[in-house]
Design goal:
111 residues; mainly beta; Immunoglobulin-like; four-stranded mixed beta sheet; four-stranded antiparallel beta sheet; 9% helix; elongated
């Protein structure tokens, strides 16, 4: 049963880059939080159980097939825990400012 795959995606910034301006980069760092997106759209998903999600030991919701959830997070290490009331999966990941982590969990049948 595959529950969670996670990937870090670089998000392009719509600003002029000034490599030697420390104050500019500090302001940019504060304005662009990282985000985590969990989407449940895998075609092999059995679609019979809800997925219960927690991020950094805080419940963030439940997903049924076709739903997604997005949360802004501070840059740094995080833990996503997903279960379908039967199988549990924990994924630890690290995000940088303005990055987005995408996860596509599934309750696919084991073959």
């Amino acid at each position: 049963m595959a529950l969670v795959d996670i990937a870090v995606v670089e998000v392009p910034l719509d600003v002029e880059m000034r490599l030697d301006d420390v104050e500019y980069w500090a302001r940019l760092y504060e304005k662009h939080p990282a985000s985590v997106t969990v989407t449940r759209t895998d075609p092999s998903d059995v679609q019979q159980r809800q997925l219960v999600l927690s991020l950094d030991h805080t419940g963030i919701g439940q997903l049924l097939f076709g739903q997604s959830i997005i949360r802004d997070v501070a840059p740094g290490p995080h833990t996503l825990r997903v279960h379908n009331t039967l199988v549990w999966k924990t994924v630890r990941f690290d995000v940088k400012p303005a990055n987005r982590c995408d996860s596509k969990p599934s309750t696919a049948r084991a073959i």
